[in-house]
Design brief:
Mean pLDDT: 86
Low-confidence stretches: 7-39, 542-551
Structural class: alpha+beta
Shape: globular
Largest sheet: 6 strands, antiparallel
C-alpha cells in the first residue's frame, strides 16, 4: 500500500547558524579594542573571546556555551530547544522505533533493579533471565543502593549492538546469585500499546506516541481487528504527546477518500506545503471515533483535526493540548542539536493548532494546563471559552473554532468516581504499583497459568486483594480510612488488577482491565452502536466551503 509522503521542505542549517550567532565561529579580537570588531564577528563571539582572554578567573568556554544555548532558545517559542550531545541519543531513540539494549522492562524498588518483564525473543530471554529477577551487579560492579536511577540503569544496560554486558542476578528459586553475559541487540519500541475487540463489531486501538514504526504497527492492528470482525474503530490518543509526522498523516490516509487535505504547514521561510490523501486507504467507510484529552498533542492533534475537519469521524473526550509548531532538528558537530521552530501546522479547515504563547515565557505557557484545571475545563464544557472570532467550517459545514487545540464533538468530563484523599495518597506514593509488583512476584507461578485478561481477573479476588493492599499501605505509612477506602474500593481493585495483568500478560491485558469502567470509552461505544446518531452528528448541511478541502 502506498504511503502518503509529507512534502515539507526543511529549512537549511543556515537558520540555526543565524540564531546562535557566532558561537561556533569567529576569530581573535583586534588588538585595537578589548572587544574586537563586534560588528564583524558578533556580540556573542566577541563576549566569549573577551571573557576567555581578560576575565579575572579561568572559565570553561564550552560550559559557557552549553549554558547559554538553552537561554537563547528560551527567548523564542516554548518548543524550540537545545539538546546537549549527552542527551541526544536518548531523546531520539523513542521516535526511531528501536534501540540497542538487553530487552527487559524494569522498575527500581528498594534501591534494586527489578525485572518486570522480558521482551520476547530479546537478548535477555535468550540467556534465561526471567521476570522477577533482581539485578545486583553490572560488569562485576555492585549495582544497588541509593544511587540507582532510571538514567543510570539505562546508561549501563543499553549500548552498541553486539556488545556484551555481564549481569549478576538474584532469583528467589536460586540458592546463590546467577551470572549471565548478555549480548545487546535491537529492541523494538512499540507505540501501539493495545488492539482488541470491545464487542462483536467494535475494535479498540491505543496509540501512545508517533514514532518511526507507528504506521506499520497501526496497519497491523487494524488488519488484526478487521479479521476478528471489527467494522468500526475507536482510536485512543489520550496522553499521546505526538512525535514524528509521517505516521499520523499515513494513518489519516487510511480513512479518507482521495484528494482530501490532511494538514498543511507554513512559516516565514517555509513556503506552504499541503499534504492530501491519495485514495488508497483501506478503511474509508468504517465508522470512526478518536478519544482525546488535555495531553493529546502535536501529531495526535494533526490526525484528530484531519478526521474532524473532513467529517470522517467524531472526536470524543476533552480539548487537546494545542501544540502545532513545526520543529526542525539541526545537528552540530559536537553531537548536540537544536530543535528550532520553523513553521506552524494547520488543519484542513485552516485552523492553527497552536495555542497562544508569548515569546520567552515558557513558564506561563506550561501553566496553561493547570489554569484549565482551575477554571473547571476538565469537568464542565461551559467552562471552555471558544474564540468566536476564529470560526472555521468542516467539509459538511459544521462550525469549528481556532485558537489552539482540537475541541471534541462530544465532551466527556474527567471521571472522579472513587477518587478520595486515601486513593490519591496511595497512588502518589506509588503503592498501588509497588503492591501489584510484590503480589505478582509472590504469585507468579500460579498467575502465569492465565492465558487471557479474563482468566487472570478471575484469579484475583477483589476482597482479598483490597484487604491485603490496605494492610500493605498501612505498613508503608498510609493509615486506613474505612469510609474513603469504601468509596475508592472499585477504583483501587481495578487499578491493582490492571497492574498485575500488565506484569503477567503485557500492555493489552492492562488496558482491557483498566478501561472496564472508562466513561469516555463507554460513550464512544454508545455513539458507534447507534449508527443513526453517529451519522447525524456528522451530517450537518454542506456549505459552499467543501471545495476548500479538496486538492
Amino acid at each position: 500500500m502506498n504511503k502518503v509522503k509529507p512534502r515539507f521542505i526543511w529549512v537549511p542549517l543556515a537558520i540555526a547558524v543565524a540564531i546562535v550567532g557566532g558561537i561556533f565561529i569567529g576569530r581573535f579580537f583586534s588588538s585595537e579594542s578589548p572587544f574586537g570588531n563586534i560588528s564583524r564577528y558578533g556580540k556573542i563571539e566577541s563576549l566569549l573571546q573577551c571573557i576567555e582572554q581578560q576575565y579575572v578567573d579561568t572559565v570553561n568556554r564550552n560550559e559557557l556555551i552549553e549554558n547559554v544555548m538553552p537561554k537563547i532558545l528560551g527567548e523564542l517559542d516554548p518548543h524550540s530547544a537545545y539538546i546537549p550531545a549527552k542527551d541526544l541519543e536518548s531523546v531520539n531513540e523513542e521516535l526511531e522505533g528501536s534501540f540497542s539494549g538487553i530487552g527487559i522492562q524494569f522498575n527500581i524498588l528498594n534501591d534494586t533493579i527489578n525485572v518486570v518483564s522480558v521482551i520476547s525473543g530479546g537478548p535477555s530471554e535468550k540467556v534465561g533471565i526471567l521476570a522477577g529477577d533482581r539485578i545486583i551487579a553490572v560488569n562485576d560492579s555492585a549495582f544497588v543502593g541509593e544511587g540507582i536511577s532510571n538514567e543510570r540503569v539505562m546508561k549501563n544496560l543499553r549500548g552498541p549492538k553486539g556488545s556484551t554486558v555481564k549481569l549478576e542476578i538474584l532469583r528467589k528459586t536460586a540458592k546463590k546469585p546467577l551470572i549471565y553475559e548478555v549480548t545487546r541487540g535491537n529492541i523494538p519500541v512499540n507505540s501501539v500499546d493495545a488492539a482488541f475487540m470491545l464487542d462483536d463489531k467494535s475494535g479498540y486501538i491505543k496509540v501512545s506516541k508517533f514514532g518511526r514504526t507507528t504506521y506499520d504497527e497501526f496497519i497491523t492492528a487494524l488488519s488484526k481487528l478487521h479479521n476478528e470482525g471489527a467494522e468500526r474503530f475507536i482510536i485512543d490518543l489520550r496522553g499521546n504527546s505526538g512525535g514524528l509526522m509521517d505516521s499520523p498523516i499515513n494513518m489519516a490516509n487510511e480513512f479518507l477518500p482521495a484528494n482530501r487535505l490532511i494538514v498543511y504547514a507554513e512559516g516565514k521561510a517555509f513556503e506552504r506545503e499541503n499534504v492530501a490523501s491519495n485514495g488508497t486507504g483501506t478503511f474509508q467507510e468504517a465508522p470512526l471515533v478518536i478519544l482525546t484529552d488535555e495531553w493529546t498533542a502535536s501529531s495526535s492533534e494533526i490526525f484528530s483535526g484531519a478526521i474532524q475537519d473532513n467529517d470522517r469521524g467524531l472526536i470524543i473526550g476533552r480539548r487537546t493540548f494545542g501544540k502545532g509548531l513545526v520543529q526542525q532538528q539541526i545537528p552540530f558537530r559536537d553531537g548536540s542539536a537544536v530543535r528550532l521552530t520553523v513553521a506552524r501546522y494547520y488543519t484542513p479547515s485552516g485552523r492553527c493548532i497552536q495555542k497562544e504563547y508569548q515569546m520567552g515565557k515558557a513558564d506561563d505557557y506550561s501553566m496553561d494546563i493547570v489554569n484549565r484545571y482551575i477554571h473547571g475545563e476538565f469537568f464542565n464544557v461551559d467552562s471552555i471559552k471558544q474564540n468566536k472570532e476564529l470560526v472555521f467550517r468542516t467539509v459538511n459545514g459544521r462550525e469549528v473554532y481556532g485558537g489552539g487545540g482540537i475541541m471534541p464533538d462530544i465532551f466527556v468530563p474527567r471521571d472522579t468516581t472513587g477518587v478520595t484523599s486515601y486513593f490519591n495518597n496511595v497512588a502518589n506514593e506509588g503503592l498501588l504499583y509497588q503492591y501489584a509488583f510484590d503480589y505478582t512476584d509472590k504469585q507468579r507461578e500460579k498467575l502465569s497459568e492465565a492465558k487471557s485478561a479474563e482468566e487472570l481477573e478471575a484469579m484475583l479476588d477483589p476482597n482479598i486483594l483490597l484487604n491485603n493492599f490496605v494492610q500493605y499501605a498501612a505498613q508503608k505509612g498510609i493509615r486506613p480510612r474505612p469510609v474513603y477506602i469504601n468509596i475508592s474500593r472499585k477504583l483501587i481493585v481495578n487499578t491493582l488488577q490492571a497492574y498485575i495483568a500488565r506484569n503477567i500478560l503485557g500492555e493489552e491485558a492492562f488496558y482491557k482491565l483498566l478501561l472496564r469502567d472508562d466513561e469516555t470509552l463507554r460513550k464512544a461505544q454508545q455513539v458507534l452502536s447507534d449508527e443513526k446518531s453517529y451519522f447525524e452528528l456528522l451530517e450537518a448541511p454542506k456549505g459552499e466551503d467543501q471545495a476548500l478541502y479538496e486538492q
